[in-house]
Design a protein that fits this description.
The chain has helices spanning 122-131, 144-147, 172-179, 181-195, 209-219, 239-247, 267-279, 309-315, 372-376, 383-391, 395-400, 411-415, 422-442; strands at 22-24, 30-34, 44-45, 52-53, 58-61, 70-71, 76-85, 91-99, 158-162, 200-205, 225-230, 262-266, 285-291, 299-304, 323-328, 335-336, 350-355. It is an alpha/beta fold. The relative contact order is 0.16.
């Protein structure tokens, strides 16, 4: 069975919420919608305090090429534009709206009718995806319209759809494939048209046999779209790992998937593209998994952007008394929350509650040079060495040893018997190298 060839680990899956159907979460009394929920330049607010807004209305415009529009997820009154602590723990500017009913923009088609035919040109599709603020829903939040624009001199040959969901615990993509497959497939067809490709492959790990069977059955009616079952191995959801697994091509260091003729999008992104192009619906809500071994009701919620995390936790049965950590994302790549009022954003795929006993790190010991971190690194790096370089602030050495190739999957941290903070140091090192590269480019 297909998979990537370098590194990888297999943590316990713990897909506790895989059978929990998507449930629409109640709209909160107030939402805080950050103007930066994407990679690239923050959007610029176009509303002021006191403004009346409708659900789906543009409230912040992405004016740079790599940016994304932000829309109101609710109807009501803008109470203020202020800084809020987001899920990363940093203060970000946000539009705060007091909810009054749920009046939608008139152009949005809210019917459940499937609209298969798309008569737009590739340019019109890309414009619509841009206008509606669609970003990568797998966590990276890269503006989707940028991926659909093939650079001059490059050629897109295949669209790869990521249905792997390799992070333990998370099941939001799984439920999208089971409950919204038809719309997702139309979204894939629309992206194929925008890219000018005749082939799309949906990669799904074989721990989701129901999704594989269901999507295969429906995909048989869509020209050029196939489904591939993949061997379970983390981090197969990484772009470069998925490309290697599905088409056996290796993206060169520092390059993007288009370098080998591939464009990669998440299943949730495909659904969002369908809604944007066919229904005129901006990205104002998403599916979020709320789970954990002690959570009373592991769930998959359809959540309006800007809803406080605390509302999701309450709907899943509350925070258990022995909870030691609440994580935004999965256990491998997620980050601990320091504020449960942080708002859900376009990149929030899951909220995970760890019991106290599982919240502490392993005892810290000296590195014994066992090499396990090298064995599991899916990018062929030497994590123990890069972590030391980053710790000692040897930024140029970090760069020359390819630290920017690190995808922050956490496999090295997971496998290290000495409990070394490898991922933490790698992230710090990447940040410093990024600053160096930007400084160099501006001179």
């Amino acid at each position: 069975m297909k998979t990537f060839t370098i590194g990888g680990v297999h943590p316990p899956e713990n897909k506790l919420s895989k059978d929990a159907a998507i449930v629409a979460l109640e709209i909160p009394k107030s939402v805080s919608i950050p103007i930066s929920q994407h990679l690239g330049v923050p959007a610029v607010p176009i509303v002021e305090k006191g403004a009346k807004v409708k659900t789906g209305q543009l409230i912040a415009k992405g004016e740079a090429f790599i940016s994304a529009n932000i829309h109101s997820s609710v109807s009501g009154t803008v109470s203020k534009i202020d800084e809020v602590i987001d899920t990363s723990g940093y203060k970000r500017k946000a539009v705060i709206i007091d909810v009054e009913g749920d009046e939608w923009e008139a152009e949005i088609d809210r019917t459940a009718d499937l609209k298969k035919e798309c008569n737009l040109t590739p340019e019109e599709i890309i414009k619509k995806v841009n206008e509606k603020g669609i970003v990568g829903m797998g966590g990276a939040t890269f503006p989707s319209h940028v991926k659909l624009i093939v650079p001059k001199g490059k050629k897109a040959e295949v669209l790869i759809i990521n249905g792997v969901e390799c992070e333990p615990y998370l099941t939001s993509d799984h439920r999208v494939m089971l409950e919204r497959a038809e719309e997702m497939l139309v979204g894939i067809s629309i992206q194929m048209k925008a890219l000018g490709v005749e082939k799309a492959i949906i990669g799904i790990e074989n721990n989701k046999p129901d999704a594989i069977e269901h999507v295969k059955k429906i995909a048989a009616n869509y020209k050029g779209i196939t489904v591939e079952a993949l061997k379970v191995k983390y981090p197969q959801g990484g772009e470069k790992q998925l490309i290697k697994a599905l088409i056996n091509r290796e993206v060169p260091s520092g390059k993007l998937p288009i370098e080998v003729g591939a464009v990669v999008h998440n299943v949730g992104t495909a659904l969002a593209v369908y809604e944007a192009v066919q229904k005129n619906k901006p990205l104002i809500e998403r599916v979020v998994t709320v789970t954990g071994v002690n959570v009373a009701k592991p769930s998959n919620f359809m959540v309006r952007i800007g809803t406080p995390v605390s509302a999701l936790l309450e709907a899943a049965g509350g925070v258990p008394e022995n909870t030691g950590k609440v994580v935004n994302g999965g256990p491998m790549m997620g980050k601990a929350l320091n504020n449960l009022e942080a708002p859900v954003t376009k990149g929030t795929s899951g909220i995970l509650l760890f019991p106290q006993v599982a919240s502490s790190r392993k005892p810290l010991h000296n590195c014994i040079r066992c090499g396990k971190c090298i064995t599991v690194c899916c990018m062929g790096l030497e994590p123990y060495f890069l972590a030391v370089l980053a710790e000692k602030n040897k930024v140029e050495d970090c760069e020359s040893n390819r630290i920017m190739d690190c995808i922050e999957c956490g496999s090295c941290l997971y496998i290290c018997p000495s409990g070394r903070p490898l991922l933490d140091n790698m992230r710090v090192g990447k940040s410093k190298v990024g600053q160096l590269m930007r400084s160099r480019a501006s001179n």
